[in-house]
Amino acid sequence: MWNPFKTRAQPEVKKKRRKAPYIKLNPVSRNLFSAADPDRNNSTWDSTPVPIGKMIDQKLSVLVARSREQISNNDYARGFVREVRKNVLGHKGIILQVRGKELDGSIDAYGNAAVEKAFKKWGRRDTCTVDGRLDWQRAKRVILNTVVGSGEQFIRIVEGATAGPWGFAIQLIDPLRVPIQVNESRLSNGNIIRHGIEMTPYGRPIAYLVETKAGVLAEPFRHSGKEFERVSAEDMLHIYDQEHPEQFRGIPWNHSSLSRMRNLAGFEEASVVNARAGASKTMVLKADPDVYEPEDGEDFAEPEIELEANTVVTLPPGFEPVDYAPDFPSTETATFSKHMLRGIATGVGIAYNTFANDLEGVNFSSIRQGKLDERDGWKELQEWFIESVCQRIYERWLQYSLLSGKIINTNGKSIPASRLGKFLEVEWQARRWEWVDPLKEEKAITEAQSNARKSPGEAIRESGRDPVEVWKGYAADIAAMRKEGIPEAMILQILGITATAQPAGVNQSEQEEDETDNE
User: What is the pTM of this model?
Assistant: First the structure.
């Protein structure tokens, strides 16, 4: 008989053995070029390439505005401009050295000197620029400052009576006067306009549009309610460091570091505020709700208390002081600032120790390697500046000056214009740097010369001087010492020459006769 209260045997439940969790990797993450994977980390990363011209249309004005603001207010941004100017130009600037030769291959010393003298005379303040404000040295500094901060510089060549006493001058134009957003896909003459520059469909500049005041020109170019002067490309130099194909406008050199500079400046400002608050021991009052209860409709107002040194303040009823002493600056402040400055220095291409003016912990090997890399960058910029600015302006100046008869030779006659090709052979001596350990550097130069791996002239040029001028200095010193009756042996000793050298003006036969008489 069935008993409902009888307990039935429960079937045995088999327990499953637990296994370690298995994480399945996304097969896409193991492919090549993982930076292009559409994963969560890359969701906000741009995935559509944009032509450089479109980026210039949309963002160049903002970049220039922010770059100029940082250079005006940020110490590091301003220091970067100064470092560029100091190392590319130096205190003497980039010096012209004319190397014109005669038909027989000899150097035309008098003609070269006449051209150099005329170019130096033109470079004075009243003749170099149309406004008579800048000499050639200062003009180069302004050009370089503008290129660094705004990415480009427009230099207009002016000839004739309006150019000043010489009849040839340059005009420095603010890049903002050449509009960025003026674009035309097709003009009546078949050309196009990109970023305010009229050019052929292949990109060769034809003319530049320069914003001018209304009513100044008889037939100005009008666009969006503004009037522009059309300046021929033959009379305009557009100076910028091109990095991309079809890039027709320059980009500020510190563009990749602007965000980091601003963030560091904001961090330092907040740190100073906290540090001043901590040093001042600011008093913060806290209202006691059990004692101080504002009436209905009454606004809560904290009492104003002026704190002075060595004073005792009695608090009003219902308020009690609260300690407010921020622990700042902390030990991590310097570490964070150094990390940010390293990134900025890398972006602008300068060694961190130079950019941050931080020589703490620097040894000879580290500073040597840093300076070598940095100076290679300066030499590259020097060659760019020479080719883009110095050479192009000199060629136009030489052509005008020869045609107008303004270069006078030592015989009192003007050098004819037919000698143009001869005096286009020039060299530009840029600044060079003293080494960290001058004694070791001089020994290395001496060893290189003795092993025929470096000529004396090459060593002098590396020091930033003209070998011809050095030889002239030697000759003048030797002639002056001989005139004062200083013995030849002492002159050789003064010059540091230990080998036996034959005095000038004494030929071999005279020397042999003297030796025979002595015997």
Answer: 0.76
